[in-house]
Amino acid sequence: xxxxxxxxxxxxxxxxxxxxxxxxxxxxxxxxxxxxxxxxxxxxxxxxxxxxxxxxxxxxxxxxxxxxxxxxxxxxxxxxxxxxxxxxxxxxxxxxxxxxxxxxxxxxxxxxxxxxxxxxxxxxxxxxxxxxxxxxxxxxxxxxxxxxxxxxxxxxxxxxxxxxxxxxxxxxxxxxxxxxxxxxxxxxxxxxxxxxxxxxxxxxxxxxxxxxxxxxxxxxxxxxxxxxxxxxxxxxxxxxxxxxxxxxxxxxxxxxxxxxxxxxxxxxxxxxxxxxxxxxxxxxxxxxxxxxxxxxxxxxxxxxxxxxxxxxxxxxxxxxxxxxxxxxxxxxxxxxxxxxxxxxxxxxxxxxxxxxxxxxxxxxxxxxxxxxxxxxxxxxxxxxxxxxxxxxxxxxxxxxxxxxxxxxxxxxxxxxxxxxxxxxxxxxxxxxxxxxxxxxxxxxxxxxxxxxxxxxxxxxxxxxxxxxxxxxxxxxxxxxxxxxxxxxxxxxxxxxxxxxxxxxxxxxxxxxxxxxxxxxxxxxxxxxx
Length: 529
Known about the structure:
The chain is an alpha+beta fold. It folds into four domains: 1-37; 46-65 and 203-273 and 506-529, D-Maltodextrin-Binding Protein, domain 2; 80-199, Alpha-Beta Complex (Dipeptide-binding Protein, domain 1), CATH 3.90.76.10; 280-499, Dipeptide-binding Protein, Domain 3 (Dipeptide-binding Protein, domain 3, Roll), CATH 3.10.105.10. It contains 13 helices and 22 strands. Strands 11, 12, 13, 17, 18, 19 and 20 form a seven-stranded mixed beta sheet that branches. The protein has a four-stranded mixed beta sheet with strand order 1-10-9-8. It has a four-stranded antiparallel beta sheet with strand order 4-5-7-6, covered by helices on one side. A hairpin with a 5-residue loop joins strand 2 (84-86) and strand 3. It is globular.
């Protein structure tokens, strides 16, 4: 009996040991997989470097509210969190805000994320948000002051809830809440505008050293988003007196990643040892028709003109590197740009559209007889003479349209006269450049008082719906229909936009993407090899 009992105990012990061993193996394997999940197939934990090297040229301040420096604006996104951030497709993602709801057309309730602490272990509260919004509303920020321009007041509801009241409805207002939040208690008793302290943050990294030639960052152990633990253990931000020094440092392999504005960057950093990403910027140029003009009120005429302009020819002849043909304000990568609005040049189709509409080409000009009078397809094109690039583009468009029987007279106006003409809609066709927002708001083009004096009942209904919903299915459907109408009625003609360039060392590994809002998407997965 004892022998049987001992045997059972022996077997039981073996089973227990086996189960413990299996459990330990699974845990070890899980940890190993977690450590390696961000590595590419050619890397191991033993042959990678986890320090990253960035650069700032002509540092003014590291304070993200006060800076006017593009490098600082980019880098501080990994140190200071906003209420709302944007992903690679300019789609909203909650950050320090956990939820935002509209209680009416003018009122937003912002619920803050609980459990967030600053890097110095103090609690993040609604007071910090109020403090930051007061700073921005005072006009102190060169880049964020416009974000709160239409805000009438804001107030705390409780320690984790904020109410924002607008002066008038702002479509997609949530996109204005992308400014970095500052810690109120950290600046207690100081003048924020003149403080020499580097602000503390709630972001993925924190500043650990700040000297005349370098800023060092390390991971913020208090970072609230535990799903985004960075592989980088340190980031060294080298400070340079000029952008030329930055280019030289990058060429010498001292910097891992850099945005550049110079289009012929190869002349400064060579052609080898790095990768280049070119992405569409927010600078967008287009033609607007005055749809109240007797002839341009006709969609057939507008569509024929849109089919007659070769945008690629404009880019090649007038602009060159750093520009790309563009068809719509959202085609810089916005998540609601769901349809290719490419309108290839097709003068034969344009001619057929005019013929079908009763026009005929006589003596190299299109004419039409209607209501006892003769109409002619000839227009003025208004342009700002202070912008030589746009003057060159206007002259190119004049040549293209004149060649197909649509004479164009260029109306060269000084900046003030040009602005008056646009504001009063005193033009036939105008060449306009704007900086488009991050949001999918299209009020400029299709809302009340839009640039083209364009009026379409269905479009007005769509604009009302999309301004008052966050339902993605509805937004997709309505924007798709809006694109169909845009293609058919052509109240505007997209022409081109600037492009920005990101260069990064070939030793830098990770899912490296960039857009105008953020060049550090997925930085938690970056490392050097």
